[in-house]
Design a protein that fits this description.
single chain, 114 residues, mainly alpha, 3 helices, 58% helix, Rod-binding protein
């Protein structure tokens, strides 16, 4: 891996390569849109895995005649959990996407914030 290339595409490269110090607004918007989509999808995956683990624990603790042991109910609950995780991630309910975006899209430095 070439360590001279900057990891953040919005920052100028330190190796002396000729790049614009400020990317055009359309590139910033495209990068922000991709980063936001990826962060929200990761939060959805995170919530989905958490719900999956919670369901597995509930199923282990349930009695043999419980609705949680029925295979048809398990499939429906899994589908509902997938939908729920997407809805919660879309609302950024857990803040995981926001934390990822703070890492991927650093705030612009303005003259008053130095």
């Amino acid at each position: 891996m070439d360590r001279s290339i900057a990891l953040n595409p919005l920052q100028p490269q330190a190796n002396g390569a000729k790049t614009d110090a400020v990317a055009p607004a359309s590139e910033d918007a495209a990068y922000l849109a991709k980063a936001t989509k990826a962060a929200v999808e990761f939060e959805s995956f995170f919530i989905s895995q958490m719900l999956k683990d919670m369901r597995a624990t509930t199923r282990e603790m349930a009695d043999e005649d419980s609705v949680f042991k029925d295979k048809v109910n398990q499939d429906m609950q899994d589908m509902a959990d997938g939908i729920l995780s997407k809805q919660m991630a879309g609302q950024r309910a857990f803040g995981v996407a926001d934390a990822i975006l703070r890492q991927l899209v650093p705030t612009k430095i303005t003259p008053g914030n130095t």
